Amino acid sequence: MKMSVSLKLNLPLAAAIVVLMAIGTAVQVGLGQGALRDMARGVSDMMEQTRDSGVAAQKDATRVKVEGMARLLADIAPDAIAGFSLSALNQYAQTATADPEIAKVEFVDKSGNVLASVGKDVPDGLVSRKSVERGGETFGAVVVTSSPAVLRATVEREVVRSSERMATFDGMVRAFSSRSLAFAIGLSLAVAVLVVGLTVVVARMVVVQPLHEIATLVVALAGGDLSAKAAIVDRSDEIGDMARAVEVFRRQGLENKALVEQQEVIRHTAERDRKAGLARVADDLTQSVGSVVDVLTGTSTSLQATAGDMTRLAEMARARTAEVASAAEQAASNVETVAAATEELSASVSEIARSTESSSRVASDAVQRARDADHRIGELD
Description:
The protein has 381 residues and is of the alpha+beta class. It contains 7 helices and 4 strands, in the order ααααββββααα. Strand 1 (102-109) and strand 2 (114-119) form a beta hairpin.
């Protein structure tokens, strides 16, 4: 399966996605905190209901107590009411109001007249009225009123207790929320660090090291070292393409090096052939010039010999002319000798002319050969 470098380098994006997932977890934790707050509100409502229930129970208990006190006083008050014993009635009332939950006790006769009253009227107290009877005869009534302060104190205690419980529960919820959020953030950071670390390791193994290897290979090729070869040419991604491209450059470098070496061999061979050709031309020129020199030397020797002959003939001619002048009689005989000498002189002059013409031809041939040799040397250069 071909995995491109771009996909490998997108691993940080995957890390970002993981971080976003962690943030989503944190959001869910926040939602969980909202649920906890809702639960806290529900618990608060339950506590308020419990408090209300407690207050109601306290009210019921106070009502029961007031009614019980009223029944007790109704049971013991007939004699005092029948005998108009106000001190006894006041004693009963004072004893009853000694209880903090009883605010007022009042005894009345059957006509409704107040016989004894202890305590103060309270507008919101619980009132219990009982008839004072004995043997079917009604003597009056007793009215007992509860004290609202006790009820208020009870309600306040319940409120304080409920508030303390609610504060404790809210603190627990906040602590749990903080711990949950800290755990989610810590988990997110741990996952992010792990993913980033894995991304760095994978990027180094998959991208950085191969690129470093390719860069080292390129530097080596630039320095002329064509022996190095990339070991990642078999990869099927962009890194492999780069490695194969560098391998193509390396092979072309090897081919260029072989061509340069071949051209160097050809150049050395041509230089050797040129030097050999120059040597042959020089040898030929030396031989030709030597031949010309030999011919010229022979011709010069022949001319010298001919000149010596001419000198001797001239001397002989002068001697014979002197002899002609001194002895006329020998003129006739010497004419033939002079004629023969003249013919020999003419022959010598002709021979000198022929030798001179031959020397000229030899010199011209040597000059032409020298020009041909120079032309050949120019062509070889």
